[in-house]
Amino acid sequence: MGSWLSTYSGRRDHRKATAIRRENFAIFLQCISVKPQRISVKLNRYLAYYNSHKRNRTTIRGNRMTSDAQRPTWTNWVGNQSFAPSAIIEVASEAEIATLVARAAAQGIGVRTFGTGHSFTPIIETDGLLLDTQRLRGVIAIDAARQQVTALPKTTVGDFGEPLWEAGLALANQGDIDTQAIAGAIATGTHGSGNHLPSFSATLIGARFVDGLGNLVTVSATENAEVLPALQTSLGLLGLLTSLTIKVIPAYHLHARTATLPYGEVIERFAEFAANNRSFSFFWMPSDESAALYCLDNGKRDDCAIRFFNEAPPDMPRQKLPANERLDRAYRIYPMHYDPNFHEMEYFLPLEAATDILQEMRKLMFRWLPLSVYPLEIRTVAQDNAWMSPNYGRDNLVVSVSGKPGDDYWGYLRACDALFAEFKGRPHWGKLHFMTADRLDRLFPRYEDFVAMRRRFDPQGTFLNAHTRALFE
Ligand SMILES: Cc1cc2nc3c(=O)[nH]c(=O)nc-3n(C[C@H](O)[C@H](O)[C@H](O)COP(=O)(O)OP(=O)(O)OC[C@H]3O[C@@H](n4cnc5c(N)ncnc54)[C@H](O)[C@@H]3O)c2cc1C
Fold this sequence. Notes:
Blueprint: H1 11-32, H2 36-52, E1 57-61, E2 64-68, E3 73-75, E4 82-83, E5 87-90, H3 94-106, E6 111-113, E7 129-132, E8 139-143, E9 148-151, H4 161-166, E10 169-170, H5 182-187, E11 204-211, E12 216-219, H6 228-231, E13 239-247, E14 249-250, E15 253-262, H7 263-268, H8 270-276, E16 279-284, H9 290-293, E17 303-312, E18 325-329, H10 330-333, E19 343-350, H11 354-368, E20 376-381, E21 396-403, H12 410-422, E22 426-427, H13 437-443, H14 447-457, H15 466-472
Parallel strand pairs: 1-3, 5-7, 6-7
Antiparallel strand pairs: 1-2, 3-4, 8-9, 9-13, 10-14, 11-12, 11-13, 15-17, 15-18, 16-17, 16-20, 19-21, 19-22, 20-21
Helix pairs in contact: 1-2, 11-12
Bound molecules: flavin-adenine dinucleotide (FAD).
């Protein structure tokens, strides 16, 4: 896994891609800097330019670029979602975004944006305009007294580490990687593990976004406060976020300890492990090959590779730590490495039923071998109040399962979905799922309110695509 820049396929591609984007952007600016009555015509010309132009075009793969003869194409990080928008436009300011969305909406053209493309679903797909916010990256304000930070949408989770640490602050929790954009992480309810630790969505306390008509909307405790629970897990459907303010906590060190134990013992001691550690998570191996697929150090069939994270004093003597333990600033402990060799589905299930669910999963997994060779990742997440958050009003056990790219893993995923449905499982918005509008209505008590809020800010459905229209129109 690489950073934003290192995921480009090569220096030359990068230079070429940047030049092409600059040229595209210049053309776009020409188009919008004319008199208002000419804008529709000019935007149409601009789109026609993209549709007919025969030179090499930019392809963004998650955040990597290759070339294509006809239209720009975009591919996500893992490679299972690819599409050809009419244009990919690099935007550099809120004002540009507002102008562009207003013009596109006036002509019935769809608009989507992306973070770093780590979602596995068609959540970003569009045949309209795809806005690339890569220039809108960085922490812009830290309020140490109030313990909050404001950042641009493309700021990665990892970008927060150093500046917050300098101010004596830290993110309360993180997931398995820190390369997601904060806007993408919040839009999909990205989470780490911990009985008392909610997802990133719950930490959003304010934001600015461009709605589906091109209006700029500010949300804070004193302005449009009623919008916050919808915006906290919005799938990008209320508008395009241009800045986000999140709640943080005092800086802390983490003592990380790994252990390998048989699944039976982990199930028996699950409640104890989850209650007695700040963060407890594990990977269960359905086969001897499983560990290597997720770059884990060890673990045989039916073993669990466990991670315990607990706060520790920074002066804890590091040199005496055994090989399976680490002590460091929290933001350096969380991230791990993945290769893009898996397609993931993840559901949130009532924590109170954890033992039953874990037993049932083992039976199901062994029935579906050899398709189910990827480790299951098991975590816990605290409840929150975000309307479309899978943790809305419920502490959850989180179960992740994966299929191998190229395999027909859908039967296996459907079987997991059926089991999760028995426990009222809710989906991770960035990972594969089998939701329908009816199911969402049954699973999310504030679903109707979210749909109404979506319509309020995007009455024309400018930010909807086929995937989200089926769920939220
Ligand atoms: C290797 C790997 C590890 C992962 N680990 C975890 C984990 O530990 N925990 C977890 O919960 N998830 C995890 N995920 C899932 C991942 O965190 C989510 O899919 C997340 O959304 C990815 O962030 P992104 O920046 O790549 O967003 P993208 O996938 O690019 O976009 C996600 C959504 O955000 C929207 N969006 C992006 N920017 C904006 C904006 N400016 N305004 C409005 N909407 C916007 C997009 O339109 C889209 O709807 C992992 C995924 C991978 C591939």
